[in-house]
Structure formats: C-alpha cells, structure tokens
Amino acid sequence: MLPLRITALLLIASVLACDRADEAPPRRWEFETMGTLAALELRGPVSEHEAEGMKRVEEAFRAVDSLMSTWDPNSELSRLNRAPVDSSLALSPLLGDCLARALALRTLTNGAFEPGAEPLMRLWGFYRREGRLPDPEALAELLPRLDDYDYEPDTRRFLRRSEEAAIDLGGVAKGFALDLAAAALLELGLDRAMIDLGGNLYCLGEAEAGRAWRVGIRDPLDRDRIFASLSLRDQAVATSGSYERFVTIDGKRYGHIMNPATGRPAEGLLSATVISEDATMGDGLATALFV
Question: In the predicted model, what is the mean pLDDT of residues 100-105?
Fold first, then answer.
C-alpha cells in the first residue's frame, strides 16, 4: 500500500442531505485501498451504469497502488528502485505517465517537488516509522544524488545512474488515481459524483441541481473543527501537512514532507491546500507549496 499522506486526513465532505423531491437519494460505496478509506458518492438520476462505475473507480485505485507502492516489494516502482545501475527499463504506461507528471511538477516548482526524494525518506526512517537523525556527512553526500536518474517519456525508458537513486510517487499517486477514476466515471455518463480517496477529493458536476459540492477543511490543530469551507464543481482538492504522519526523534516531532534542498523535513507551515481541475497537479502542488 502507499503510505498515508496528510492530504488524506484533512478533508471531509460536508454536503447537505438531498431533500429535493425530484432527486434520487445519494448512493454511496466505501472500500479500503492505498492504505486508506476510499468512497464514491453518486448524485442525480439513478443510472444503469453505477455498478460499473464503482467497479472502475476501485480498479483505478488498486492499479495505481499495485504499480506505485513503496511498501510492496513486488510493485513495479519497487522493482524499478532495485534495478541495476545503468540498465534501461521500459515502464508500464500508467507508471510512466505518473512519473512524467511528477517530473513536470519538479520543473514547475524549481525542485520543491522531487520524485527522487525516496532516499531521504529512507534515511530519516519514515518507511519503518523508526525515526532517526541522519548522519550529517551521509546527508550531505546524498543530496546531490537525488536526481541521479533519467527518464524519457516518449519511450518510457528509465535509468538509474547511481545506487542511491530511487523514486517515491506518494506526493502525486492519490491525485493521479483520482484523475483516472474521474475519467472512468465520465466515460459512463456519471457526471455528478464525489470521489474520496482518504480525503483527497474530486467533485464532479453538482451535488444538487444548482448547488456545488461543499467541502470542509479541518483545522490542523483541532480535528473536530472545520476552519474553512469550499464550493467545488468539476474540481479536485488536496491538502498537505506534517502533523499526522511524523516521527519523533529525541523528543522532537519531524513531519514526513521532505525539503529536497536541505534534506530535512519541511517546517514553517501547518498545511497547504490546493484546488485544481487536475487532481495530479493539485496533489503535487500541495506538497511543493508546503515545502
């Protein structure tokens, strides 16, 4: 499974119950995937394609998880990270597309978003949840090697240039999965839906005729309080923060979002929220803006 991101824990949908006589009641399905709880809620007239829509959403999430998990040693990404140095690998279309999107975000954010930050997560002990302060010399040697890899999107060929090079797509994978799920629903004509991937949301169409989906953002210091609300139509929303996924070292808490420039967990903000028509872009930008 993919590690939980804080985006998955900050957002809740606060849509008012539908009481219009000409509207069918909401239909909702829930299931576990990608290390979190996912849900699909459909609104509007009942469609014969709803069961197929639910199936495709779940298939999209599970496909991304099976390809991009850093926790599963048999995922395509894990195998890529173990590939011999200087051996060129052909990536699957989904993994290749997601990596290409991640690299575009790296360029857009001047490196604040770095898909090659996997070695930092490992060095700080986040994968085993056994935090440790890195040796300063080891950290200094690692920083210049975070981008020791090459990827050619046209051919989907990937090459590691050093043993240290490794990819973690956790900063975009949930958004990427949401984009796939939304496209699948639209293909079936299901254009009024809320897709929830552990709090990363994509809201299609309207919650009710003439009314947008209303989404509440939890206070990062008080999970029982909603400090802001959003109205969304055909938009995704993602929030990044560092106060729920963290490690404690010598009594100090360190969040999981790494600053590639320093090799240390990013500090200074509680959370950053992005609204976007492109869930992959919004997911990655939430991380980059936090950094």
Answer: 98
